[in-house]
Amino acid sequence: MAGADVFTMEPDEVHKSVEILFDVESEVDSRTATLIDSTTELAQQLKDSDTALGPALAEAAEWWQLRRAGGFTGLCGNTGEYLAVCAEEAVEVDDYNAGDFASLADHDRYPGRANENASSRPDW
Amino acid sequence: MEEQPPATDYTQAEAYEPMEQGVADLVEALPDFPGFERRSWNELPCSHGGLDDSDYTSIEIRYTFSEAVSATTQVREDYLDELRTYWSELGLDIHRDDASGTGKYHSIEARREDGINFYYSVGYQVGLMIQSGCVPRSDVSELTYIPPSGGIVPGSEQDTVAHDSHYFPEGVPTDQAAAIDPFATAQPVSGPVPFDPPASYEGHL
Amino acid sequence: MSDMSWKDLRDLDCAAIQSGGYAWAGYVDRMVEQSERLRTDVIAGHLSIENYESDTATQVREHIDLFTGRFEDDLSDYAQTRVRTALLEASEALKAEQDELLELVGLIEERAYEIEGDKHDYEVNPSGELHRSIYLHLDPPQWLCDRVGIDKPSAWYDLVGEAEVMSRLGDFYELAKELGAQYQDRLRAIMSRAHDADDEAAAALTAMREAPPELPPQLGATYDDLIDDYKAELSEEVAAEMEAIFNGESDLSPEQVNQWWEGLSDAEREALIAEHPEWVGPTDGIPVDVRDTANRTVLDDQITGLDQEIADIEQQMDAINADYEAGRPNDSPVSYSELQERLEELRQDRDQLADLDSRIQEPHPDTGQEYFLLGFGTEGEGQAIVSVGNPDTADNVNVYVPGTGADLGGAGYDNGGLMNRIDSMAYDAMRFGKGEETATVLWLDYDAPDGVVGEARDTALAEAAADDLGSFTDGLRATAEGEPSNLTMTGHSYGSTTVGIAARDEGLDVDNMVFIGSPGVGVDSAEALGIDPDNVWASRNPDDVIEYGMVHGEDPTGEEFGGNTFTSEATREGEHPFPGGGNVLLGAAGGAVAAVDGAVANHSAYWDDGNISRENMAFIATGQEGEVE
Which of C52, C205, C257, C289 fits A56 for a cystine, CB–CB 3.0-4.6 Å? Predict the structure, then answer.
């Protein structure tokens, strides 16, 4: 894993990237949930009419939410955390901006995230 | 069902020449001929027992006017009258002379005794088609290039036959003398043919 | 499997299905905005190299690009191409069938018929009420009296009127039963198409979840190991999707295939055409010019391959000959006669393909249109789908489905009846086409009957072709650029049966249907074809033998069928194929035989020189129905 031979960094800018990643994660999750709710309702109507489409649509909607959109939002969130932590460690080798970034990349800025201290952390 | 087809006047290879000669004669008879835009040769299938029979083919030679010429009353209306007169005088059987549903288009056809059919079609584009009926198919190597009529330059882009790799894979003869020119003895027409009207038309009409 | 009853279809909320499709479409748009944020605001913005430069930064940017790309592909392949399109296509198809059902059920109820039986095989029979009005009360309804041609009894004491009813009970029974059979025919066609539309939409959604591509790995300890595998899979994914589409395993409709194709990058498309033209060429939903390029490559390869095979076999035969002449024992595992038989087959295939290849090289001599090769094959009697002009850009498209005896040989020069026909149709369309472009397509992608007896009397071959013809038509609609073309489907002889059965079973998204010399089209009324009966046309010349072979349903030129008719001439006489008759020498004694053979010959006379049917077909194909005679 790369990360040691750093560089240049604008901590504010990197931090804004992290926030966008988290925001996209939240926005996609929320809109997907709304879509799946309405689709499930439609699928039930179609099931009641003995269509083949009804059950297939219900399964497709669930699959989309869990596997594809859900997979994407998971990657968004984890990458956001990874980026925050990775950048925080990177500043240790860059005295110029170390102080600035440490104050911005505080874990407390992202309270309640399930994997705040888990898989997204750099492993070195 | 008989296995042998009836006798015909021509084979495919023999038919092109009298067909093209027919066009040359017709063009000569039409006043102020504006010139065709394009010539092509096509074939249509013949059938036996309900199935296409590859031993026979039906030739269709197509001469088409340009879109601009096709829009003129000369070719859309005047030539219909001219052709009625011309074919009647030749004693041909005009077996079709009718307009489409709204009268926008018109078709007139006449057939010679040797089976060659002339079909003048006034559509969006106006054209003359000359049709052989079914004739025994000839090997393409037997086919001879016949120069076109009606203002089309032999071998030009407008003479699409000359560029058809099926009929003439080696191209058409560059030495025109090598090609059969059925119109070698025809007189060139540079304009309207002088016409002395009779004193009276009584008995002519 | 679709298990909708007619009542389910009647009550189905098609608007809700359509709204569902639009909801997914709107969702996709919103999601694309989110992916754009990652690309623009993160990768190229706050996290750009100007703001953050290091190996780690590079890797994170690549990672975000990868999973954003994956999400965009998912949105295109699944949310858009699969779910949205499946819902919109299903709602449109089901709504069309529902409308027709409502009209039909209105008639059935108004005339006191009832629908009975299994939902996949409905029967429509006179109800008890209708029976009683005829047999018990001798007072049939007005419409039935009109059909029988007698006055309805004026009152219960109109004994004379009732006596007349009594005397015509057999007619009442037959006509009531006949109308019920027509209703049944139409109802079954509606439900068959509705079930198909439902099943196809379901299949597309189910197939979506089978073997989807992996997501990119999470950043972490094993990332470096996993990311190489992921990238390798990514490059194979498109090819695997194309293969699944080609094999029919993806269950994508042509419209969905088109969306998938349009969602690929230029590089992905070019790679597929170069590496797998055999999958690209035949696939409905891929643009016509792309299919043409791919098919021509495959055609060249096949001709080269056949040349090589022929040379190999000739070499083996020479070796056997040499052994024989030298008196040596021959150890070839294949006999000389087997090799000779194989050689003849290969030579025939080779010649037919070379002939087809030669036929599509030069533009049409009159219209100047290029030829487009949309499919071909040598299996069985051979297949060919060739268009004069590009259907994707033409104003009018006329698809010609040939009938009995059609084979690959007919698409070449030596026995080129089929190609000559579409050449003539293209020429006729230019002559009468108002200056618009008409693309004329030969569709020979089915096993046509070999002769006028046997297979031609069975609908099995037409039924087997229905799905492919429906798919081809949908593909033309999907790839069309600009306004939808005026699309005509022209079937000759058994080809008309094929068209009618495809319309009945699959639904054909066409504007006009034209049936020439038809032995019946698999339905008894134009209304069962799924398009406005005013756009259904049929013609039979007065001396076409097919008049005596109406084996596939009601005569489409008959008044009962309910479509339009146009004039065709019997241009052939005598026992052989001589249109015009000028070349025909008929002996008086041969008259009877000649008449029969003339009728057989006239079955194929519709494209003869000067036959008015050619003009009429051109008028329909170019949207000038008012000119038809």
Answer: C205
